[in-house]
Amino acid sequence: MTEYLQNFPASRLRRNRQSQWIRNLVSENSLSVNDLIWPVFICDGNNIKEEIASMPGVFKYSIDRLNEVTDQAVDNKINLIALFPNTPNDKKDKNGSEALNEDNLVCKALRKIKNQTLDLGIMCDVALDPYTSHGHDGLLSDTNQILNDESNEVLVKQSLLLADHKADIIAPSDMMDGRIGLIRKALENSNFKDTLLLSYAAKYASSFYGPFRDAVGSGNNLKSDKKTYQMDYTNSDEALRESALDISEGADIIMVKPGISYLDIIQRLKKEFNFPTFAYQVSGEYAMVKAAGANGWIDEEKIIFEQLTSFKRAGADAILTYFALDVAKKINLFS
Ligand code: PBG
Fold this sequence. Notes:
By secondary structure, the chain is of the alpha/beta class. Helices cover 36% and strands 19% of the residues.
């Protein structure tokens, strides 16, 4: 590449930056509404739209008010929303049995949304943490080990229940080994041939998930970290192995999580596999931008666009972000 570069002054890289019109023309990446996925929290009760304390501007909605979400998503051309339940504590138990209850929050929400014909995809997480009294994503043994294969059996059942309720994308976020293959096989055997599987393939044991755990009410229950199943943040090669396995087991899309601190992983996976690759800008990242913005320490709006565009530059095809609705509205204003 350097052999093509002419020396100064024949080469003046600032020529291409001198005005907005030329900057627009040589721009390599851009953010569109098609890149945005909106995570939404749902809760029990009636007529509730309650702000999450650690995520200003993000709300949990009772099912009867979900229309506000789906209407806004459709009006603003957002393609996909991701549902996360705030299960009441009295419905949580050691085995997360509420995950398999066809009257749980997510199933109720799916019945309501899928009763209408909307041009909107619905994605649902597969993991037990919103349902377990201990806040872990899998089953816990008597000696407090996360049981891989036993957890998988429940995750398969949870996936079939969600598919049966017409979830468009099933997204295992639990990081158990082998679950993608087992879920894919179960879906095929039950004739859910078109159900998309989005694997949280490279999900790191991260301190950026704190506000999310408040939002789904698992934070206070969780007495130990998730390092025996979520990835060690010192690792990068391991993300290739995780992703290779999930792709070979039948994932349609892989995801990296968290986002901004893991752009290197997104870029490596995209380069290595050329596979649909999503990013999750998680709750802690959202909270940090909001807090600094509220204090006037940063220009919130500009930072949001800069961060989301950096996901595109790294190679992400789409981004789960709590800013999705605000950003979609802004993009639509100018298009
Ligand atoms: C649960 C799950 C988590 C998130 C998405 N799915 C939390 C966790 O792994 O503890 C975090 C999302 C966020 O922080 O925004 N399996």
